[in-house]
Amino acid sequence: MSKIRTQLMLCGGTGCSATSPAVREVFEKELERQGLSEEVQIVETGCNGFCTLGPVMLVQPEGIFYQKIKPKDVPEIVEEHLLKGRPVEKLFYVEPASEETIPTMNEIPFFSHQMLRVMRNKGLIDPEVIDDYIARDGYFGAAKALQEMTPGQIIEEMKISGLRGRGGAGFPTGLKWEFASKSPGDIKYVLCNADEGDPGAFMDRSILEADPHAVLEGMIIAARAINSHKGYIYARTEYPLAIRRLTIAIQQAREYGLLGEDILGTGFDFDIEIYEGAGAFVCGEETALMRSIEGKRGMPRPRPPFPAQKGLWEKPTILNNVETLANVPQIILNGGEWYSGVGTETSKGTKVFALSGDVNNIGLVEVPMGISLRTIVFDIGGGIPNKKEFKAVQLGGPSGGCVPEQHLDIPVDYEEIAKVGAIMGSGGMIVMDENTCMVDMARFFMDFIQDESCGKCTPCREGTRRLLEILNRICEGKGKPGDIEDLEELSSVIKESALCGLGQTGPNPVLSTLRYFRDEYEAHIYEKRCPAKRCVALLKFEIDPDLCSKCGACFRHCPAEAITWKKKDVAVIQKDKCIKCMTCFEKCKFGAIF
Amino acid sequence: MGKLTIQDLKKIKENASKKMTLRGEKGDIKVIVHMGTCGIAAGAREVMETLMEELGQADHENIQVVASGCLGMCSSEPNVTVEIQGKTPVIYQHMNANKMRQVFKRHVLKGEVQTDFALARG
Questions:
Q1: Are residues A38 and A84 in the same domain?
Q2: Cα distance from B112 to chain A (closest Cα, Å)?
Q3: Domains (range + CATH), chain B
Q4: Are the Cβ atoms of A264 and B27 closer than 8 angstroms?
Q5: pTM value?
Q6: Which chain B residues are closer than 8 Å to A258 by Cβ?
Q7: Residue A32 and residue A40: Cα distance in Å, rounded?
Q8: pLDDT, tens only, A445-476
């Protein structure tokens, strides 16, 4: 027997692979036991995107989607579904809003609203098998660029496509390549920025894990466009799986002669090396990244000269983000016109977002530019869990800002998002519900920024520290009149005077929360009250007798035995025993504790 | 493997695509083997194995083989349904290895419905 009838596409992304190897092992055993090993094949894929339901598996060709598979479920799947043809319903996806069971992947709203370009191979190919990638038109873009196109034509095609940098700043990719191609010099470099550092962002990691060859192919095309023969992928060392798959991919591409000398017999030479970063946030900034590859301490330098003139080792260099490069092969293969057919006036193509926070469907989504944020949060994301209210969505990590309810209908577009005080960013999208304190949120990001500040310039090193101190004071109930004005003044100074992009955008979390949630800052400072009831220091730990349902949940859960309660009586917190651990607060379903 | 030329790249694509047909676009022809407990007891495993063998030999990309549950006509098991796009599906009854081979060669590959073994159109 030589033919496979069913393939089990088991997700091997970082999220799912916490348990998927165990699941795979049981599958192999059970298939063997039922005599199905030769008819049914297990394929380990890259991240499917629906991380919150992991481990997930797609059964092809039927398209049945299983979620949260445990090793003990496997015998049932093998016997019932694979042997007897009865899909196991209890492992189907259940739509959170309607509680409806949906068996096939394409009907699940999380997937059906997406548009896959960068992630077109996710869950379809085995990322460690180069032939799988080639079967999906892999390396045909590079072949076309090397054989049929001049560097000028490649750059022209990129400009027509309207592709803009997906790392966050949104600089037109074609233009960047053009500058570097015009710079004089024999030695030039193509760099891939895989130093994804924003809290809550995991797009690039998943692309590298699911489709590493797409990034390599993009780099080959970029190298041809600027006539470079050496490329580096700067990946953070915290991404072991991505680095492993990249290493395998580079090895396979070299064996096929798709990297190295005389690629595809065209006489063009190009090779790629992986450089592992040590995990400093600042090394995602282009000039700091290049210093780090040079073996120096990763710190930004003033621009100009821009990297297109003087970059790595003072040679003309282009640096593109993982997602940007993964778009390139398809643009070359299908043409810039095809690519720009999707999107808005100034933002073309698709964008990958890492959806996380207070949202039902946490995971990775790729959407066409121009789709509204509301569609992403409520249709793809499935809305807010536990029947809570939406408050804001944070875009672009520490350099970004938040978008409140009233602006949720704006389209995904570089300019439109900037108008409401946030940025497109690299794709981190953190959803926050009514229980999030915006002052506390700003404090979290400021803590991150001041911690990651490289210290080279004073505005960032000292300024962000002072911002954090003020925010800490406000959250501890020690805010004083004038704090808001100080925050604003300091922020604007940092914005204007910091050396690099990360410093200049550092105060954004403060500014954007002040823009939409100034009343929360005022409540903290003037009324010593945290409206979202998040800041422990501002809570009184008292029980409102009118709201208390006398259920005793707080009493049962209090670890300090600080609550007295009898059946049919209102509970009372004894303040001398209370350790302010928030347990009662979390257990009370009626919001009676304040 | 040595250096690839663009011709080699095309060959690899062709070969690898065959292995991946299950994952992408659906085939035009679907052969369903009904494998409930009743079907398996009546010999559906053997039918499935024969079908897979035939499929392996035929080297045809547009055929999808699916195991499915009991039809409800347990007395006529093993049942096999052949669905060709644009045509009425045909359900075969009391299948065995030989009948499966005939149905595969004549109906699936050539489109001739084997009325002698058929239970119903549906």
A1: yes
A2: 23
A3: 23-121 (3.40.30.10)
A4: no
A5: 0.87
A6: 4
A7: 10
A8: 999 999 999 999 999 999 999 999 999 999 99
